[in-house]
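Q: I'm building a small set of examples for a reading group on sequence design. Run inverse folding on the following structure and report the sequence directly after it, with nothing in between.
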């Protein structure tokens, strides 16, 4: 439904911002992004799903296993 989609989009935006903040030159560690984004409002599973959505959209990629970068 529309509310769930809006919540998903908000989570995607939050996670994309976290990756951008954490990535520096070498990229953001997957675990650091999970720690930064999972908590009271979102579970680690929902954060991982959002990261996968961002990768599917081409906004984030994984140059090496466990490291994320924005495009």
């Amino acid at each position: 439904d529309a509310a769930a989609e809006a919540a998903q989009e908000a989570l995607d935006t939050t996670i994309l911002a976290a990756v951008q903040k954490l990535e520096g030159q070498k990229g953001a560690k997957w675990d650091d992004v999970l720690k930064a984004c999972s908590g009271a409002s979102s579970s680690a599973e929902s954060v991982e799903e959002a990261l996968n959505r961002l990768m599917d959209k081409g906004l984030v990629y994984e140059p090496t296993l466990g490291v994320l970068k924005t495009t």
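The chain has a mean pLDDT of 91.
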